Amino acid sequence: MIHTPIKIFSGNANRVLSKEIAEKARVPLGKMDIIRFSNENIKVTINESVRGADVFVIQPSCAPVSEGIIELLIIIDALKDASAARVTAVLPYFPYVRSDKKDEPRISITARLMADLLNTAGADRVLTMNLHSPQTQGFFRIRCDHLDAGPLLVDYFKQNVNLKNAVVVAPDAGSMKRVVKYAQRMELPVAILDKRRKDDSESAKIYHIIGEVKGKDTIIFDDEISTGGTMCEVIHALKDEGARDIRIGVVHGILCGPAIDRLKKTPVKEIVTTNTVMIPKRKILKNMTVLSVAEPLSEAIRRIHNNESIGEIFKHPLK
Question: Which CATH class is domain 150-291?
Fold first, then answer.
């Protein structure tokens, strides 16, 4: 697509991030009107030519989630109808990312449904970040590029925290493989928690800690904080085992429901997250640092447009 024009459009989910990505990519945001009628229907009008263009649509899964999904699908359909050569859906946080398996009878694997809907709407490609399970890429019948923002968190801790007495913590077995890579990059040991979830209460019980955390500074890595129930259980379990300073590094700061109130009551020293989803000012705590993913996403967009590999993006720190 290197000889075709590149255009970037944004839905309403996270306009601040979209503007930052467009600015770093040196591409102005495309002109588009999104109208909501009194009957709650949505109308999308593309106000510039996209014929033959390589188009990227940025729309992470932010509240209101369902409205954002429909908005994205209509935007993609409008772009394809306007003869865009290729449409890439840029989803820093993928909708229904946790609904990636059939773990009880008669339920929908909704993450797969989202992949099917993007394909049906006309998306030719998807660019996303830190899927809950990397295997979710297998749901797509179109190309899916999956970026890992973990190295941004790792580099932050390496540059801003004394790591001489630190240990990296995986909150459960499912995150172990990913967290081990982060620990290797930091040259630190790893501890893992035996965490088990029995229902949809969005919290889990900690049964055991494997590894030495007593007297250690700990850094917990996870893909997201939702209601904060499980993360708070992890924090208290580490404190009970004698951990010193506790820090958290998560890519997606969803922070819904009672998350903020719960985190305020914990002894966590610092929370580091990214802006894959919009975090309102009222939810940004004094001990919270929000890193931007605009640089890696804009670089990925540039590389996709130029038919270059995106595998090199996180091999070296991005400034």
Answer: alpha beta
